[in-house]
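Input record, target 12 of the design panel.
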């Protein structure tokens, strides 16, 4: 598959696999531009606990009328941050990064019908042991870090700005660090400035600050969005490598992976037969939601190992994978 990079920023995508490393993903939220998007999928939780009795129940026994995000950022309100239903199993809520004030780390949980807390698993990557004052929230909360980037010489994103040799200080800032004007100071290189960051997968806006007062977008990046000041913020989508696996079908002659990421091309991405009874394909995908199917010797099938499926509005059902 041919991948076209539309701007000069070098993105060294961190490798991850879908099946073996899915448990390392941050559960419950992702970044999109200047927003934090909370996502609740009932299939991600095995048990719910009653806010009053603490009794544990299974999600199969629960009819969902509404879902709310409750956490330290809204004083654990059972009602305020109500989510929007996306499909039969999924709810989302979008909040601007500035809604989270000055803290970078927050604990939160999802509550169903203003009564039943969705309980994270101890295997989730971003769990936090609930404080005593949160005893109603049971054992674990989810943890959200609203700063999505740290300086790292081996980071997956390199920012470069050519010229400006007379500048004394240049900072890169964006939605990945809540537009902090001091955190990420760039260093001089030949013919310009540079800084490498390790950034979580997601879509982010950013700008450069020259000598503390002159804000500019990235002249080498054509991807831009208008900001509230009538100027432009530069835009990047930090993705990662994803591994698709299909078990069985060892008698098949050819298996194709097709999806929204390649306009459902029926020849573009051919999977390779592994030596352990499965077919495999690894490719880079941008952050966001992706729809896909497998084509086995001309026959289209859903991913039998992936329970997440959605209608596409045309009467078709597709498997769904989120890069987050």
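The sequence produced for target 12 reads:
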């Amino acid at each position: 598959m041919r991948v076209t990079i539309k701007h000069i920023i070098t993105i060294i995508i961190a490798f991850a696999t879908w099946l073996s490393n899915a448990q390392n993903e941050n559960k419950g939220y992702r970044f999109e531009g200047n927003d934090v998007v909370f996502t609740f999928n009932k299939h991600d939780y095995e048990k719910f606990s009653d806010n009053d009795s603490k009794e544990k129940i299974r999600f199969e026994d629960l009819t969902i009328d509404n879902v709310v995000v409750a956490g330290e950022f809204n004083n654990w309100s059972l009602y305020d941050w109500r989510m929007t239903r996306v499909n039969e199993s999924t709810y989302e809520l979008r909040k601007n990064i500035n809604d989270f004030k000055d803290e970078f780390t927050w604990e939160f949980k999802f509550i169903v019908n203003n009564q039943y807390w969705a309980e994270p698993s101890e295997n989730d990557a971003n769990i936090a042991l609930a404080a005593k004052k949160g005893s109603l929230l049971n054992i674990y909360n989810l943890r959200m870090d609203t700063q999505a980037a740290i300086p790292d010489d081996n980071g997956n994103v390199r920012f470069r700005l050519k010229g400006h040799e007379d500048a004394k200080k240049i900072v890169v800032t964006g939605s990945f660090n809540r537009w902090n004007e001091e955190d990420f100071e760039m260093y001089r290189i030949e013919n310009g400035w540079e800084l490498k960051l390790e950034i979580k997968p997601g879509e982010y806006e950013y700008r450069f600050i020259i000598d503390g007062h002159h804000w500019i977008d990235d002249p080498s990046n054509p991807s831009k969005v208008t900001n509230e000041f009538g100027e432009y913020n530069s835009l990047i989508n930090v993705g990662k490598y994803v591994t698709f696996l299909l078990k069985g079908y060892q008698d098949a002659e050819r298996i194709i992976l097709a999806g929204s990421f390649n306009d459902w091309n029926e020849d573009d991405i051919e999977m390779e037969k592994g030596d352990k009874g499965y077919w495999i394909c690894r490719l880079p995908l941008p952050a966001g939601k992706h729809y896909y199917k497998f084509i086995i010797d001309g026959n289209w099938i859903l991913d039998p190992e992936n329970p997440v499926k959605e209608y596409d509005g045309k009467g078709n059902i597709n498997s769904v994978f989120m890069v987050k």
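Residues 1-24, 132-138 have pLDDT under 50 and may be disordered.
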